Amino acid sequence: MGPAMFGTLVFVVILIVFLLAIIVANIKIVPQAHAFVVERLGAFHASWGTGLHVKIPFIDRIAKKVSLKEQV
């Protein structure tokens, strides 16, 4: 394995690790009795209920985390 191939291999491994980190960071779990308000490019897009959701990196943003528990 020559130096050029080693450099390419290192670059590919770093790129894969970087992409996996972005994907994992954008998987969100909404807990029970909560809802997340999602904005896309600064405008309201959706309200996420309980469960697993995936947001689009750099486009979507969790604007607010709302508790749905009854207040006394």
TrEMBL record:
Q: What's the protein called, per UniProt?
A: Peptidase
Q: Which domain of life is it from?
A: Bacteria
Ranges annotated as spanning the membrane: 6-27
Keywords, comma-separated and alphabetical: Membrane, Transmembrane, Transmembrane helix
